[in-house]
Amino acid sequence: MIEDITDLQNKGYSYDFNLTPDCLECASLNLQLHPEDFHVDETYRFEGMSNPDDNSILFAISSKGRIRGILVDA
Description:
By secondary structure, the protein is mainly beta. The protein has one domain (2-73). It has one helix spanning 2-10; strands at 15-16, 18-19, 24-26, 31-33, 38-47, 55-63, 68-73. The protein has a four-stranded mixed β-sheet, with helices on one face. Strand 5 and strand 6 form a beta hairpin. The longest helix has 9 residues, at 2-10.
């Protein structure tokens, strides 16, 4: 996953998003994005070696305001 995060950062996905019940938040920009304000450009799924239920998803997100970042959902 680290390699994919680094690759996305090199492509300009430089902000970190966090998932809240109503929106995505970017703490460093004090920004909230609601579903109509962003697009998922790419997804990467990672499964645990010992347990397939142990997985994470990496999302490459871009907003209408051209803010690009990543969201990791474990």
